[in-house]
Amino acid sequence: MSSFVLHVATLGCIYALLALGLNFQAGFAGLLNFGFVVFAGIGAYASAILSSHGYPAPIGIAIGVVVAMAIGCAMAGLGRNLAADYWAIATLAVAELIRTVALNEDWLTGGAQGISGVRPLFPARAGAGGDLAFFALALAMTAGAYLLYARLSQGRFGRAIRLMREEPALATSFGYRLVPLKIKATMAGAAVASIGGSLLAHYMSFVGPDYMLASETFAVWTMVMIGGLGNSRGVVLGALLVEAIYSAVPFAKDYFDIGSDIAGAVRVGTIGCALLACLLLRPGGMIPERIRSPR
Amino acid sequence: MKLAKVLYASVAATVLSAAAGKSVAQTVSVGAVLPLTGASASVGDDQRRGIELAVAQVNARNGVLGRKLQVIVEDSGGVAATALGAARKLVSVNKVPVVLGEFSSGITIPVGEYVVQQGDVHINIGSSSPQIRKIGDGSFSVIGLDDLSARFAATDVFSQKLKDVAFIAPNNSYGQGVAAEFRKRFEALGGKVSSVVLYSEGQSTYRRELQQMSRSRPQAYVYSAYGQEAATINREAYELGLNKTKWYGIYLTMCTSDTVPQAAQGQEGLEVASIGQGGKSYEDAYRQKYNEAPKSSFGSYAYDGVMVAAAAINQAGSTDPAKIRAAMRALGAYNGATGTIAFDAGGQRREQPYDKVRFDTKVVSR
Amino acid sequence: MLQFLVDVLIRTSDIMLVAVGLSVVYSLVRFPNVAHVQYAMLGAFATLGLTRAGLPFALALAGSCAGIGLVAVVLNTLVFRRLLRSGSSIAMIGSLAISMILIAVVLGVAGSRPWRYAPTLSSPLQVGTTVISIDQLTSIACGVGCIGLLAVLLFRTNVGRSMRAMSSNPALAAATGVDGARVLNGITFLSGVLAALGGTMLGLTETVHVGLGSNLLLPVFAAAILGGLGNPLGAAAGALLISIAETLVTNVDFGWVVGGSDVYVPVTYVSAASFVILLVALLFKPYGIFDREVRRV
Predict the structure, then answer these.
(1) Which of A82, A186, B138, C89 could bridge A72 with an S-S bond, Cβ 3.0-4.6 Å?
(2) Which backbone phi and psi does C182 adopt, to 5 degrees?
(3) Can you give the pLDDT at residue A22?
């Protein structure tokens, strides 16, 4: 049982990485990215492909980060003329396009059944030791990402993107060029998401095109909105909460003896209701962003 | 933040342990991952029934190691990631020494690799892709792999003087395996496979795929598809008028399990033989409990999977996975509902009998 | 050639009605409502439920359309208008939440397996070498008929004129005595009806399943954006263009390129065609190829 709790906590940390990345793009910079999960997918595939060819894990992670940042740059370039919600649809289209490529190109990505048997990160310690070590790594990464974003958001860059989010015209009048800001913000979010994806690939020993389904992005969005858009702390909490709900469903299924379809429905419905409730009642999320006084 | 995290983790832990505190020392548990929802749900249901029948049979005969046998069934949803989560729960929470499953090769392979990596025993009860071999030591198949079925199909089709065929199968390790094997055998016999289409699972229409295949004007269509998708393919083939050409289904029961009978009328195919020495008694028990004939042959493979696992556990005298693995290897020949099961050096079934069948409002032998 | 035309028409009728519904209401709500495609899914299931309850298909269809129209109005009043106060982005995320809830409800009630309205098959009609089934003909006829009716409604009736007035300039329309709230509810109702109709027809030619709406999301948005949001007839044209592109991509034999025969683009890339068209449209012609009406993208 404790190993299952560890499992939930590890997944929670990995999703917290994704949520932090999206929070930076959407919360701080106001970029509504509905294709966000593709960055995680790229990290996952890069790690899986490179490790199956024998390269050590850090190389896979690094390549994943580079490719994800390139895709992020392209996505942000699309947003040159588009209002926020239309850019959102464009990012959805880009994500689906990449997923379709991953689904079809078996020679690279293993096609529909993906790549299985990805080498674990800590092969020397099998069983519980390995899981614990992995959790420690995921936790460290999450803490690192949190600190990174805290640093980024406190500096000039952070102020610039928040200004761009609220009053783009004012930002331009101050001399900030919006498109490079958008590109940098997207790339910053993409890099962390890619690391999260790489960790997921090594943890599940498997990667498939289903990792990049639109529903995965929606799940991360829910984590961010429930936690509070623009607040890193809340977002990590949101990730843990949503992951706990997702993982509790199979147990609830056993306990209440309900069918799998109903369990799936309850899972999606709970998340949807939670998201709607947050939007209607507390648009700032459970722990809203604190406007710092200019002292 | 750290405190909140610990708080949430412990709340989750308490809730979950309250919910899952059902493990009893009086039973021996094994696990099963089945497609209870998704495209193959009707086959998954049949597999579940086979498992239930086997459990009843084993417990009527003294159980396993003197205790009752229990099979914990988890849903894979037809998706590998869900299946892996289910396998993880079975292995680390329920601590089963043996995991059976799944049905689709693209799911069985990752699940099998995970189970074997954790040191447990994996039994493949429904997948037939030759790639199953790569799962490795600790995985055993009670169902024959597709090098055998493709050879049978190629010979059967060619012997009916059908020399130019089009082939459609799902785009996963199962479909790729059976397509490649069939093409190899059929062309070795002198036939021609003018078009091979690997369809993407989970689509709601396959009209375009069918149209692409029909352009080469084949003499027959050879196909293999999972329940719901096969139903769509058969229906749309009917709507396109393609069913006037002969259709040959590999594992015909699986292909027609959800199809409207009118669309599949007149199809031919092959099926895994489910009549072994124990087959008749399996069929009788099935009819008695569920008031209908067995829906597919995959239920009997699930049945045999459980029986073999129980026999191995009894032979090993304990629930230690390493001992069960050794017992499985040393099992020799087992007479099950699907015939004589013997494992080769790689844990795969040595021989697999097939039946020639055709569809006449349901699957009958020919 | 005729088969190509038939294929194009079938695919157009799949997405046209839902795209037109989206476009019709867009100019008033001003945010991309991703729950709109789930109305189509809900409509298909409502028709299914009513036919199972014993009603003949036409009546079930009418009932379902009315029902979904009502649902659209209720959701708009209770949820979307409130969220719009916080901005269109929040409203869009809210529509995402509504989508999830609708999917959960249908999943819980009807399960994940696909359903058909009638257990029998629809026989194919053969015209030369072209084959089309009765269901597909029904769908095409329904789509074309509805577009015709809609055009008549919008351009020849007073109600339609009020709707068009509200779409282009709500303040001015109110000043000339158009009742804003009533017209808004009317347009929302209409979009719900169109979505339900489109969903039912899609359920007729394919199957009724819980993923029906999600599969439509990108093609429908592509068609609506291509035609110019707020321009319903443009959305129909957009749907036609998308389906021509998709059918071309998978039906053209590229054997001459690689020196073989019967070489086709894998069918899974067909959806990529509509995504690429959407991206190109957003990049170069974000106001749609007809470039009138709503100037906010």
Answers:
(1) A186
(2) -65, -40
(3) 92
Query: Coil, helix or strand for B21?
Result: coil
CA distance C164 to chain B (A): 36
Report chain C residues whose CB lies below 8 A from the CB of A275. 93, 96-97, 100
Buried residues in B244-268 as b, exposed as e (16+ CB within 10 A): ebbbbbbbbbbbbbbbbeebbbebb
Contact partners, residue C28, CB within 8 Å, separation at least 6: C166, C167, C170, C184, C187, C188
What is d(CA C66, CA C63) in angstroms, rounded to the nearest whole number?
A: 5
SS (H, E, C) A34-101: CCCHHHHHHHHHHHHHHHHCCCCHHHHHHHHHHHHHHHHHHHHHHCCCCCHHHHHHHHHHHHHHHHHH
Look at the alpha carbons of A272, A276, A282, A284 in this order and tell me if their dihedral is positive or negative.
positive
ipTM of model over 0.95: no
* CATH class, range B147-273+355-365: alpha beta
Q: Which domain holds residue C55?
A: 2-213
For chain C, how many structural domains are there in total? 1
- Please tell me the distance from the alpha carbon of residue A183 to that of residue B145, in angstroms, as a whole number: 51
CA angle B275/B279/B283 to nearest 5° reads: 110
Mean pLDDT of A230-235: 82
Helices (H) and strands (E) counted in chain B, each on its own, are 13, 14
- Compute, in degrees rounded to 10, the torsion defined by CA atoms C148, C150, C152, C154: -150
Domain parsing of chain B, residue ranges: 2-143+276-352, 147-273+355-365
Interface probe, candidates B84, B92, B103, chain A, greatest A C-beta count within 10 A: B92
pLDDT tens for chain C, residues 1 to 297: 788 888 889 889 889 999 999 988 887 788 889 999 999 999 999 999 999 988 898 899 999 999 999 999 999 999 998 888 887 888 888 998 999 999 999 988 888 788 888 877 877 888 777 888 888 888 889 989 999 998 898 888 888 888 888 777 778 888 887 777 888 888 899 999 999 999 999 998 888 988 888 888 888 988 988 888 778 888 899 999 999 988 888 777 776 776 666 667 777 788 788 888 888 888 777 777 766 544 555
Regarding pTM above 0.90, the answer is: no
Contact B92, A7 (CB under 8 A): yes
Instruction: For residue C42, give every residue at least 6 positions away whose Cβ sits within 8 Å of its Cβ, in sequence order, or none.
Output: C68, C71, C102, C106, C196, C199, C213
Residue C265 in any domain: the answer is no
* Residue B31 DSSP label: E
**CATH numeric code, B2-143+276-352:** 3.40.50.2300
Residue C176, helix vs strand vs coil: coil
CA distance C200 to C194: 10
Closest CA to A274 of A236, A231, A223: A223
| Nearest-Cα residue of chain C relative to residue B243 | C124
The bridge status of strand A115-116 relative to strand B363-365 is: unpaired
What residue of C is the nearest CA neighbor of B166? C262
Q: Of C16, C15, C290, which Cα lies nearest the Cα of C147?
A: C16
* Residue in this structure with the two tokens 């009053």, named with its chain if needed: A167
Test mutation, A7, A205, A231, A260, chain B, max B CBs within 10 A = A260
List all residues 6 or more positions away from A289 whose beta carbon is below 8 Å from its beta carbon: A27, A228, A229, A230, A231
Report the distance separating Cα C79 and Cα C87, nearest Å: 13
Residue C292 domain-assigned (yes or no): no
Dihedral, CA atoms, C196, A91, C78, C59, nearest 10 degrees?
0
CA gap C174, C32 in Å, rounded: 24
> Domains of chain A: which residue ranges?
2-211
What is the crossing angle of helices C2-29 and C158-168, to 10°? 70
Residue of C nearest to B78 (CA): C112
Q: Are C265 and C273 in contact (CB under 8 A)?
A: no
